Amino acid sequence: MERKLAIKIENVKKQYRLGAIGGGTLQGDLQSWWARVRGKEDPNSKIGQKTYSGNERFYALNGISFDVYKGERLGIIGGNGAGKSTTLKLLSRVTAPTEGTIYINGRISSMLEVGTGFHPELTGRENIYLNGAILGMSKAEVDSKIEDIIDFSECRQFIDTPVKRYSSGMYVKLAFAVAAHLDSEILVMDEVLAVGDMKFQQKCLGKMSDVAENEGRTVLYVSHNMNTIRQLCDRCIVLDHGRVIFDGDVEEAISIYMNAVIDLKQVDINLTDKRMKHLSPIILAKMTHLTLLNKKNPIYEMNENILFKLRIKSEENLSNISVRIEIRTFDEVSVGAAIIQNFSCINKEEKDFVFKFNPYGLIPGKYSALLVLYEVNDMGVYNDLDAIFPAFQFEIIENQRFSEIHWNMSHWGKIRFENLMLMGE
Amino acid sequence: MNNHWTSIIKPKTKLLDLNLKELWQYKDLIIMFVKRDFKTLYKQTILGPLWVIINPMLTTLMFTVVFGGIANISTDGMPQFVFYMAGNTVWSYFSTCLTKTANTFINNSAVFGKVYFPRLVSPISTVLSGLINFFVQFVLFMFFVIYYMMSGDAVRPNIYILLTPVLLLLIAMLSLGFGIIISSLTTKYRDLSILVTFGVQLWMYATPVVYPISQIPLHWRNLMLLNPIAPIIETFRYAFLGSGTIPWFYLGLSVITTIVVLFIGIVLFNKVQKTFMDTI
What we know:
heterodimer; A: 425 residues; alpha/beta; Rossmann fold; Coagulation Factor XIII, Chain A, domain 1; 2 domains; 6-stranded mixed beta sheet; 5-stranded mixed beta sheet; 24% helix; B: mainly alpha; 13 helices; 1% strand
């Protein structure tokens, strides 16, 4: 059976002007115009800049083309500024492309933000109608679904209370409930699922895949969270600098995106000026340098020890210092941590320490490490002296024992524990 | 493969590709917006909807004191209060619609930036919600008309009150037209949104709201009636009070002006709405 196209994007470009957009004031533009008429220099241009616009344009999308078939759940990933949100904006007709054409087959509804147009003074029920209408539902449609929407939102108790009295969680749940019950053939979503508590997030994801699988609707989903992409999508596009660099299998797309984001070369790393922003500006001690020992590249076989030398500089006498290393995946999901507590003292000096870290069971992939230097006082209170992310990045590659099995990336997690042991039959 | 596309997004639309059919599909949204405006207008005020009545009463009273009492401007022999109220009822509808629709893009940029619906829905619903206020004021006005009639004043409503729906439609279209022209231009020049509040005030003095057109020297009178809102107010006042005349020729001219302004407005608005998010 031939599959039907839902969306066809043909060589779409979107150009933005950089810097201040438009003169802003009528007077400014008139001045510029008058100056040009008389052949004088534009009084509003920056000094030394002769041309008025010229090269201060850039393409957020630089000729992208792809097709989406009916019933597909397409993920769109890419770094910041790759053009993901612009693509969704064009599809949801918030703005128009500069060049190219987009063909759409079916009604499209976009959830670039949940709760668009909610009015705080109106009750939950009234807002369902209002929001539904904004998203393109007729009153009759909302009428027929209102009970389902209220149930899904888990807000029945407060449905006739103005939403300004809602907690932010309830607000979002109600908003998502409306959006999830849209009848349109094509759903466009921008990370709206990153809301609500975990339970509700899972419920939303479940609802979305349900919608796509059982009702044959098309879903376009943009996210930075690779796990939700894995859960929801069956095809994935990677955007980079306004171009499509990959289109196809989800796992492959994710690994391509990861590779594009990370460069894995450094084994000798200067840590100064990398202090995390949330820390107190008063520096008692800091980590200044890190070296991964015995390595040219930060690539380790599974279960291989990571040896690293950490230079710590202290401004005070610290009788007890501790270090924690936190491992995260590249989409910044925490995997685990290792700790060494009260291992040494340091007195207004710069000192090197060598540590061994065994990431036992960590499956092949790329990771980053967050290093925290802290002290624990007599009361048992933790005080972070310094924290750096990413302190270093590394890759785990397969060893022989691992290559024998096929690890299910989307469900089995990042740790392979010790093999099960048969204790009796 | 032979596909029937439901919509095609292109960089530019033709100038006259207005897509009014799509607007009709969103009629429920217009109704929802009107309901929202009405329900939320006077929330958390002590007097609530009473403000709809208090507002015009105070304005009319002020007019009566300042223009009638202090400046002593003639009202063509009409009781001052009801004369000013007639002008104010029409003018306040016009000016409210104009100032509100003029800020369509700026006030709605949060919603417009996130979801698509025909942008014209917003100004149209603004004009319709203004109608609710107008009707309340109108009923109040009718109350005074009847009161002055009973008390034997010169107030003489006549058959031309049947023109009221037409006049109302004209005002709505005119304010919508001017409003969306200004709103389209404000996406580029913010100055206009400030100017508009001031401009509307000036416009009021150029319109026979606080004085009858008969007070104007003859050679200026024709010029003043070119102002499309002036013949509408004169006609309204003639129909309900029996003062002045109906300037038929200028009323006809006003109809033509209104249609032209509204048309230009819609074309301009339609052109701006596609990409205004990039510039606002």
